[in-house]
Amino acid sequence: MRPQVLIIGCGFGGLEAARALSGAGADVDITVVDKTNHHLFQPLLYQVATAGLSAPSIAAPARHLFRHQRNVTTLLGEVVAIDAAAHTVTLKDGALLRWDHLIVAAGATHSYFGRDDWARHAPGLKTLDDAFEIRRRVLMAFEAAEREEDPTRRAALMQFVVVGGGPTGVELAGTLAEIARHTLPGEFRRIDPRQARVLLVEGGARVLQAMPERLSERAREQLTALGVDVRLNARVTGIDADGLDITTTAGAERLQSHCVVWAAGVAASPLGRALADATGCTLDRAGRVVVEPDLSLPGHADIQVIGDLAAAQSHLPGREPRPVPGVSPGAKQMGRCAAANLQRRLRGEATAPFRYRDYGNLATIGRHSAVVDLGTPIGPLRFSGYAAWLFWLFAHVYFLIGFRNRFVVLLDWAWAYWTHDRNARVVAQKP
Predict the structure, then answer these.
(1) Both 293 and 151 in a single domain?
(2) pLDDT value for 312
(3) What pLDDT sits at residue 93?
């Protein structure tokens, strides 16, 4: 029998590892198992949450992606346990999958910093289900405000709060402001959607803290120009069905809102703990697995961990090892590195350390507004405004999976650009 390679997760890292192994003609059989049946382009997930794109525009069925790769089998299932000694994993339904080489790319989930009870009042944004729920809450808030007679309760319904000033939070806040000011006016008779308030609550001193301070300040200015109320150095102390409590330098404050979105914390997949129990590997504070330079586990060369689940470092020649950021280019590069090292092991060769190439960071704030921080051979290239927005747009279209998705997204964005319309505003009431 040929070596059995099991890949857990069909995100950026898992997809890239499977493609690299199959495309290189490796003499192995590959199984990709994921708890969903699709690959999701997460950088544009907020567009689904804010009704700018439909789900099929940013997702592709996993089976369709691997239809031409005869040595790749895709399975729908959730891995709940890993047995390193027996070389098996257990699925949620009790089924066992055997492997000779294991690549774990299970990704990340939300972190509420020990307050998981906040999750039902402030959903995060990691999956299509999350996006559908946020979209439902946003649009239903306007519907409820249309029927509300009490001015105070109506104001609470039309106040939207995004917690977290990273790229997801910034993009969500800016888009919500555009929906209220450009998409919905004229559709309601008892309320003016332009009176809606969008607040962005960030616990640090600035938004987009991974970017240079100048671009961070430029992003804040662009958000303010869109009408977003940016609250910096604001720590959330409580969230309930009627709003949230924050603490700032000015003291405690209560924000009334029926639509709070969480974009403040990320935690590694629970499979990190399962790996630690099975192998004795070390986890960092976020639950990520500390890996060797070649992305394998200490003492378990047949197990590699990649993507958001890995606390990996980049080992560039002549430089000190540096942590790899949790972004899609990092996951893709780790997937390719894991595939290459697996093939080296099969040939009896020494593995190579992971080397991350930093392409920079992008974030869009709204129409004609974005910030770009690129790494180039001659130094950093940083710009903002309309040129940055165009660069962000075409970069995301280019990296989408499949020609159809690129075409549909470009068409939807062109339509929205000229009309301000958002066609994916169909939601269903919860039973």
Answers:
(1) no
(2) 95
(3) 95
pLDDT at 19: 94
- The two structure tokens encoding residue 249: 């330098």
Tens digits of residue pLDDT in 87-111:
999 999 999 999 999 999 999 998 9
Residues 281, 274: Cα–Cα separation, whole Å: 10
> 331 or 428: whose pLDDT is higher?
331
Tokens representing 204 are: 């640090």
Pull the structure tokens for residue 121.
């009042």
Asked if residue 5 lies in contact with residue 28, where contact means CB atoms within 8 angstroms, the answer is yes
Report how many domains make up the chain. 2
Residue 171 annotated among the catalytic residues of the structure: yes
Taken in order 170, 172, 177, 181, is the CA torsion positive or negative? positive
Q: What distance in Å separates the CA atoms of residue 15 and residue 66, rounded to the nearest whole number?
A: 9
Report if pTM > 0.90.
Answer: yes
Q: Which of 171, 178, 202, 292 is the catalytic position?
A: 171
**Residue 246 in domain:** yes
User: What are the distances in angstroms from CA 192 to CA 57, 158, 183, 206, 423?
Assistant: 31, 10, 12, 31, 20
Q: What is the pLDDT of residues 385-411, one digit of tens each?
A: 999 999 999 998 888 888 788 888 988
The domain of 225 spans 116-264+361-419
Task: Report which DSSP code applies to 283.
Answer: B
